[in-house]
Amino acid sequence: MVEEILKMYFEKHMKQKNIAEFFKVSAEYVSKIVRNDDRYQEEKQRRHQEANLRKAKYNKKYLETYERKKDKSDKEDYDKLQVLLDSDASQMSRHSFGISADSFVKSNLGAYKKDKDGNLILDDKIKASYALPKKYKRKVKRLYKEQVR
Questions:
Q1: Which pLDDT value is given to residue 142?
Q2: What is the pTM of this model?
């Protein structure tokens, strides 16, 4: 029986589990017999290489046919961002003399902090030219609502 187990494993390239089922013995018994053979390390390496080739082939086929499912939320987020970008672009290109203070502040809200009166003040850490609005007294709540949309 030992010779038949070795023949099935090394020549027919059967799995240890299948050999154990065929002879109605435990898989541990088959493993012990196979590991004691001189050809085991070479066969183990060959099987490992075959498995890697099968895996690479599968992954290649999978990647060729894989199509990511898009959630509705992804599309909605993209559409919202596109509307915001279009709006900012139109506001920035409306005047030939440059960007308006409203458009600049709206586009750079992160550079401004609210004061106690609700006005926006340019952060002290930011070095800016004299042309940039240092204080913005418009309706700040409306500006934030527009930015969130």
A1: 57
A2: 0.42
